[in-house]
């Protein structure tokens, strides 16, 4: 009897092993062969060899060679995890970045005739599938594995910044790595102020909901209610405050040729409105989701109109001060700011260089300010303790809304399930800057990571930590 049970268990194990192996080997189809060949060439990371591969197998992709090689440097390549769908001319597979926990869905299609050249290839980032869930670690295990992971990132010159992990408001891991200024050899510390990109959107959203809570603003009202002279009447009459907060208003971006031409002339939120205010909505407001930096510029302008203060004064007085954030701001780049790091980018170069030529005149309500990991942790605690908004408005602020991707975007906050645990917050990234804040109320953990390097330097570290957080 015991032998029979053992034999049965072994047979089940062998069957599962065979299935697992079959799912992680490319099929012998035209699409399968080309997908395996592309992945091998991409993973090799040799630009000349990959050019030769594309010339033969996907000539149309030659124009994107530099982007593919930059993508390879960012991801470290991909490992095949699962075949999701396969025909003779099309294959869909799950892959994982070698440099992080990030999963992607790779879709490849080939011509039906020889030599089966690649006609379509795309890789889209996806949430980590439940079947590949990582184990939750104990706090001591998490701290040890995080340090080991970051040290490897630093050794590979893929991370320079600061990391803070807190449990129930008390820091359990605080570390700083790399240089704030490579020329002066100034090290990063916990006091280093890093540019935070779109993380400013959290402050803008909190400010907007503070005004709504005080009944000075109605989120169902349109832009024109608060900016009566707004140039484009479709935006003024159709786009609501709530749609701006959820990126469903169709108000578009601020980056592109116009921004490059006027980068240093855009000194106030009003300057942005003058430059972009005549644009019509990109789509019918409320009909779909599209990330909109300009939408948060408009929120900043509305905050100014309703409060009677500049956006910067309002945030300083109503968010930074009650939260105890003494090292955060959005001062102009021309103003000397103590402990503000230099950002370093490789986005158009193979060597690190300062990102000064990409920076706006100053941070805005859409992004571009600066902060420290300690200040971000204080902000998280102020939110949780309802020092900024009452319980009802805090829940409204941080709960994902219908009509956003996977219902995961709230009001200036992302609201996601990460390895079975709910976390909310926001990231930010641009050349030479990357940051992420995750607040996980179920477990009491807060994770703040800032880097003075290109994305995904901070995001990769933040994801590594939150994917492994203790469950309680």
Outline of the structure:
With 472 residues, the chain is an alpha+beta fold. Helix content is 38%, strand content 20%.
Overview features:
Beta-lactamase, 2 domains, alpha+beta, Nuclear Transport Factor 2, Chain: A, 472 residues, 6-stranded antiparallel sheet, 16 strands
Question: Would you give an account of this structure?
Answer:
This protein is of the alpha+beta class and 472 residues long. The protein folds into 2 domains: 2-132, Roll (Nuclear Transport Factor 2, Chain: A); 145-466, Beta-lactamase, CATH 3.40.710.10. It has 16 helices and 16 strands. The strands form 5 sheets. Strands 6-5-16-15-14-13 form a 6-stranded antiparallel sheet, with helices on both faces. A 4-stranded antiparallel sheet has the order 1-2-3-4, with helices on one face. Helix 2 (30-44) packs antiparallel against helix 3 (47-57). The longest helix is centred in the N-terminal third of the chain and has 22 residues, at 2-23. The radius of gyration is 24 Å and the shape is globular. Residues 1-23 have low confidence and may be disordered.
Which secondary-structure class do the elements indicate?
A: alpha+beta
Which superfamily, in CATH terms, is the homologous superfamily of the largest domain?
DD-peptidase/beta-lactamase superfamily
Helix content: 25-40%
CATH class placement of the largest domain: Alpha Beta
Total number of beta strands: 16
Strand content: 15-25%
How would you describe the shape? globular
Number of helices: 16
Mean pLDDT: 93
Find the CATH topology of the largest domain. Answer: Beta-lactamase
Tell me what the CATH architecture of the largest domain is. Answer: 3-Layer(aba) Sandwich
In the sheet with the most strands, the strands line up as: 6-5-16-15-14-13
N- to C-terminal distance: 42 Å
């Amino acid at each position: 009897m015991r032998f029979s049970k053992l034999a049965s268990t072994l047979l089940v194990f062998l069957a599962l092993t065979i299935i697992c192996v079959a799912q992680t080997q490319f099929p012998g189809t035209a699409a399968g062969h080309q997908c395996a060949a592309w992945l091998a060439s991409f993973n090799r990371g040799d630009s000349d060899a990959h050019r030769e591969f594309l010339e033969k197998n996907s000539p149309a992709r030659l124009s994107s060679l530099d982007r593919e090689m930059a993508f390879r440097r960012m991801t470290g390549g991909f490992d095949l995890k699962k075949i999701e769908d396969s025909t003779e001319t099309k294959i869909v597979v799950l892959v994982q970045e070698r440099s992080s926990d990030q999963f992607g869905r790779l879709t490849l299609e080939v011509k039906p005739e020889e030599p089966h050249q690649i006609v379509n290839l795309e890789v889209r980032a996806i949430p980590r599938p439940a079947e590949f869930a990582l184990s939750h670690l104990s706090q001591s295990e998490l701290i040890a594995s995080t340090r080991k992971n970051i040290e490897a990132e630093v050794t590979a010159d893929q991370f320079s910044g600061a990391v803070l992990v807190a449990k129930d408001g008390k820091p359990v891991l605080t570390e700083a790595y790399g240089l704030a200024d490579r020329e002066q050899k100034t090290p990063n510390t916990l006091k280093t102020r890093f540019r935070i990109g779109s993380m400013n959107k959290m402050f803008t959203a909190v400010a907007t909901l503070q005004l709504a809570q005080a009944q000075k603003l109605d989120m169902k009202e349109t832009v024109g209610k608060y900016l009566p002279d707004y140039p484009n009447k479709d935006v003024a009459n159709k786009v609501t405050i709530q749609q701006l907060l959820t990126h469903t208003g169709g108000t578009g971006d601020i980056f592109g040729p116009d921004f490059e031409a006027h980068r240093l002339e855009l000194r106030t939120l009003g300057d942005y409105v003058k430059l972009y205010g005549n644009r019509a909505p990109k789509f019918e407001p409320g009909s779909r989701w599209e990330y909109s930096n300009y939408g948060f510029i408009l929120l900043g302008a509305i905050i100014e109109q309703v409060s009677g203060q500049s956006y910067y004064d309002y945030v300083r007085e109503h968010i930074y001060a009650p939260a105890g954030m003494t090292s955060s701001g959005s001062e102009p780049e021309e103003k000397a700011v103590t402990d503000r790091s230099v950002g370093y980018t490789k986005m158009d170069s193979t060597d690190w260089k300062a990102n000064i030529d990409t920076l706006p005149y100053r941070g805005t309500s859409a992004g571009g300010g600066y902060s420290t990991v300690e200040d971000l942790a204080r902000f998280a605690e102020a939110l949780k303790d309802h020092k900024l908004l009452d319980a009802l408005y805090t829940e409204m602020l941080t709960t994902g809304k219908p009509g956003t991707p996977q219902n995961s975007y709230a009001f200036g906050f992302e609201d996601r399930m990460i390895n079975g645990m709910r976390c909310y917050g926001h990231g930010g990234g641009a050349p030479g800057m990357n940051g992420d804040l995750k607040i996980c109320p179920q477990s009491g953990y807060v994770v703040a990571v800032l880097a003075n390097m290109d994305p995904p330097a901070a995001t990769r570290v933040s994801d590594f930590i939150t994917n492994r957080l203790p469950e309680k």
